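Subject: Sanity check before I submit

Could someone independently write out the structure tokens for this chain? I want to compare against mine line by line before I put it in a report. The sequence has 157 residues.
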Amino acid sequence: MHAVVVVESCFGNTSKVAEAIVEGLRSTGAEVETFAAGSAPHRLSADLVLVGAPTHSMGLPTSATRSQAVQKGGTAVASGVREWIDHVETLDGRVVAFATTTGGFLAGSASKAIVKALKRRRIPAERGTDFTVKGTPGPVADGELDRAREWARTLHA
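---
Independent answer below. Compare away.
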């Protein structure tokens, strides 16, 4: 199986989850490529395409929420998943979204927003799993990286 992971991360938490997902996929024998959303190709073909982002203001990060993240100690991200989706030409293969979130009823989910944005571009996608972080800057909640590895293994099954 060939998989591609496209990820955006401001505080490093979503990247850590993506790395755990890559480890889980590779443990099943999958070949995996990883791209930061800002440098991901606009045409991808793989058995599995995973798209992940942090949840900001109940959805995908925007330039405004990224600026807020930088003010709170996050890394500057000029272009993320939202902008990548706007320029995607083709995604061939099963497309699954994942996200990091602080959890709770009012937290929202970037994975839900990813699926919605891709469907607007007529690209079928499914919502995968959201992983919990402890507050805006993190860290990733206990056990979530193990859960990400296990979830990835189920995607290859």
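---
OP: Matches mine. For the report I'm noting this point. The radius of gyration is 14 Å.
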